[in-house]
Amino acid sequence: MKWPTIRSLYLRESFLPSLGLTTDFPPKLNLETINWCNRKCPFCPTGLGELDGKKTKLEFDIIEKIANELESHSFRGVISFQARNEPLLDHRIVDIVTCLRSICPKSFLSMSTNADKASEDIIRDLFAAGLNAFSMQLYDKSNRKRLNKFKTDALDSVPELYDEKSVSVQGRKERFIWITDKTPWKKDEGKFSNRGGSLDLTYEKKKLRENRLHCHFPSHQLLILADGSVPLCCNDWHAEVKMGNVKNESIYDIWNCETFDKYRSHLKKMDFSLPICNNCDYGLYE
User: Fold this and answer.
1) Backbone φ, ψ for residue 127 (5° rounding)
2) Cβ atoms of 165 and 178 closer than 8 Å
3) How many angstroms separate the CA atoms of 129 and 95, rounded?
4) How far, in Å, CA of 253 to CA of 217, rounded?
5) How far apart are CA 79 and CA 223, in angstroms?
6) Segment 40-73, tens digit of pLDDT
């Protein structure tokens, strides 16, 4: 019998939505604790300075409110500390991980970062606080040695930490770290989407798929922004389609709202005519 890889276990919450099924509570939560980033990447509206408004932090009492509701639903899914931002710029991040781990002990806590603000100490502190997965995005080849050193140090110093790229396991391991190579990231390489139409990207080297991929984002993950609002999905970069706000509504009510159900119904039928979807290129290219 071939056991699943770490990555397939990490993405296990995508299984039901891929069949067109939706649970009554989100299996994955993307949490944007702050709304800014230190990089200026041409494939990202945040880096291009296209997001409206001032720097915003999600209040700690709202984070606790979110955690308590998750636990009231016996949440066992994934909580990812990233969205349109760089999570390590939030000086509260270790305390936030500690809070979520304490209140939601069965959840799987992950983080994706450009690692510009990473250090050996902060990585160890995050795992000690209860983080399960730490993904470092490599955008510059010159940064490879530094990120490899972080990974090596963590593997040597953090108990029961595994390299995601090399481990296949029986069952689910608790903690792992890896580097995702995003080089080269020039837009003509075709590695990035147009973020729901937010970016004007032309991919001459991209090959159209014979059949467009099914989009399951609104069925398998809930994105909470730093102001508490919930957009359609991770590609609704400017939050043009708002589903609600966790400051005055429950996650359950937002997830089961009429607008979410409308989008899911359309996408299940491969109907991409609704706003955001009609300009999004997710699933179009190989």
Assistant:
1) -65, -35
2) yes
3) 8
4) 18
5) 10
6) 887 787 766 666 668 999 999 999 999 999 999 9
R_g of the chain computed on alpha carbons: 19
Read off the pTM.
0.88
| Tokens found for residue 169 | 């396991």
Q: Could you report the per-residue pLDDT of 167-211, keeping only the tens digit for each?
A: 554 445 578 999 988 876 554 455 577 888 887 766 555 666 777
- Copy the structure tokens of residue 139: 């955008």
Nearest to 67 by CA among 106, 19, 36: 106
Tokens of 124: 């160890």
Looking up tokens 């931002």 gives 85
Helix ranges restricted to H, 82-184 = 93-103, 120-129, 144-157
Which token pair is 97? 């991980």
